[in-house]
Design goal:
- It contains 19 helices and ten strands.
- By secondary structure, it is an alpha/beta fold.
- It has helices at 13-37, 53-63, 88-91, 113-116, 122-141, 155-166, 177-184, 186-200, 215-236, 274-298, 314-322, 340-343, 349-352, 374-377, 383-403, 416-428, 438-445, 447-461, 476-495; strands at residues 41-47, 69-73, 100-104, 145-152, 207-211, 302-308, 330-334, 361-365, 406-413, 468-472.
Length: 496
């Protein structure tokens, strides 16, 4: 692929000034239109050392209001960042509506630098291609403008630039041991780059390979490409790009047939007597405290998801779960309606950035499943969005598990009769009345719609690597013991 790039392309100095001035004016206008349209723009810059990434980024920055963009210079992950799934630090840097994120290096480091330097094994960087494909598809289908540039120079041009930089005391620091090592590894990097371009240049997120032996030509090419893409995307509005249609080979042979609802088979008569409950609860809490310390020692993250009907006992279960845990090693993350700031990002971002680091526990009281539950039933997400979310959620959870995360998901199930009893009890108790809201009663009126949504959610997202556990919740003691026992079993499994 790279050998087909015409590196003789050039722009004379006399031609560059009027071209630059014209592009700067138009890019400034495009930024203002994009801000009004709420466009979220991500620009990824990869390329050979000394290929001119800094110069290209500076050319764009000169055209734009600096309050509307941010440049992220991304080196290899820090020791702290390695305690999270690899994509976490990129989710943190995604732009809000109307803004631009410029990434000087990106998520492709894993399949380039880390691959060539042997920092990750082949199985890991091979899996990374799938994660990158999923990540970029999720962004583009949610309406992000994603542009990826590979700045290409030949080996001789890099040698010339290295020499010029090394001879200038102001810029000599730019050519260090790492840059010289990568130059010696040119052939290995070239092979990695070719594979990266072939495997990740997709219909939704194609690579733009920029001939960069001439700096002026590279800057003009990138500026014109960004201008054209921003203009098209702003004109399109907030309508996201469509995912490519499946090919004949990919077309499913059967249509989705609604299966029986797994909630139909839940035995809500299950219970435990008080004496047995007290004894088992105490034993489980002590066991979990010991397992928590082993989890920390082994640097394994644990994510526990609590979903369930209103008044199904999520809060009580979480309190029993955390009663004997060291509070320095866990966090309970209550999830409510997204804020305006959160709504300006992809819906999964707020969960990515709240994941526990390796060795810690994150307990989500409600979660990313709101997309296929409340947002589906209440119409806050379109049918296209919530149907797409099943795949996005499965991919998200697969990334967590591949990282080594222990993932436990609970649906706390109660009968409508038990829910009514608990609602009325809360309203009658002045100390608990705050726990019942008009939203709870309104949600109860939509029980059947939620029942269908929960059933489909379990069917579509209970995977071999992240299965759902349905908790029979009419008897609170039974539900609490089962939840703690499930967590214990999961931890014993990952700890061996």
């Amino acid at each position: 692929m790279l050998e087909k790039v015409d590196l003789t392309q050039a722009l004379r100095k006399a031609e560059w000034k009027p071209v630059r001035e014209d592009l700067e004016v138009k890019l400034g206008q495009a930024q203002r239109v994009a801000r009004e349209a709420g466009l979220r723009t991500v620009l990824v810059f990869e390329g050979w050392d000394a290929a001119g990434k800094g110069g290209v980024i500076s050319a764009l920055a000169a055209a734009w209001d600096p309050r509307g963009f941010k440049v992220h210079n991304l080196g290899l992950p820090t020791a702290e960042e390695r305690l999270y799934p690899s994509l976490t630090r990129y989710w943190r840097r995604l732009p809000a509506s109307g803004t631009i994120a410029i990434l000087n290096r990106s998520w492709y480091r894993r399949v380039l630098d880390e691959r060539v330097d042997g920092l990750v094994d082949e199985s890991e960087w091979q899996r990374t291609y799938d994660e990158i494909d999923s990540f970029e598809r999720q962004l583009v289908t949610d309406g992000y403008l994603l542009l990826k540039f590979w700045l290409h120079i030949d080996k001789q041009e890099q040698k010339r630039r290295f020499k010029a930089l090394s001879e200038d005391p102001v810029y000599a620091w730019k050519v260090g041991k790492a840059e010289r090592r990568r130059r010696r590894q040119w052939s290995e990097y070239e092979q990695a780059v070719e594979e990266m371009l072939a495997r990740t240049s997709t219909g939704l997120a194609p690579w733009e390979i920029v001939a960069s032996n001439c700096r002026r030509h590279a800057r003009a090419t990138v500026m014109q490409t960004v201008l054209s893409a921003m203009s098209r995307a702003s004109a399109r509005g907030d309508e996201p790009a469509a995912a490519p249609a499946p090919t004949a080979e990919e077309e499913p042979s059967t249509v989705w047939v609604k299966p029986s609802n797994p909630l139909d088979r839940v035995d809500l008569s299950l219970s435990v007597d008080r004496d047995t409950y007290g004894r088992q609860l105490d034993e489980l809490q002590q066991d979990l405290r010991r397992l928590q310390h082993q989890l920390y020692r082994e640097r394994i993250p644990l994510v526990i998801v609590y979903e369930g009907w209103d008044a199904s006992g999520k809060g009580g279960s979480i309190r029993r779960l955390t009663r004997e845990l060291d509070p320095r090693g866990y966090e309970v993350v209550p999830i409510g309606a997204p804020t305006p700031q959160e709504l300006s990002h992809h819906y999964l971002r707020r969960f990515w950035i709240q994941l526990p680091k390796a060795g810690h526990i994150g307990i989500f009281d409600r979660s990313w499943y709101g997309r296929v539950l409340v947002e589906r039933v209440e119409g806050f997400a379109s049918e296209t969005e919530w149907r797409r979310a099943y795949q996005e959620i499965n991919e998200f959870e697969a990334s967590l598990v591949r990282f080594g995360t222990a993932l436990v998901k609970f649906w706390l199930h109660i009968s409508p009769e038990e829910q009514l009893r608990r609602f009325e009890a809360r309203e009658a108790d002045p100390f608990r009345r705050w726990k019942i809201t008009p939203d709870d009663w309104r949600n109860r009126d939509k029980w059947d719609a939620y029942y269908d949504a929960v059933g489909e959610m379990i069917q579509r997202t209970s995977t071999s690597y992240a299965p759902w556990t349905v908790i029979e919740g009419d008897d609170k003691p039974w539900a609490r013991v089962k939840a703690l026992r499930t967590v214990k079993t999961a931890l014993e499994g990952v700890l061996g």
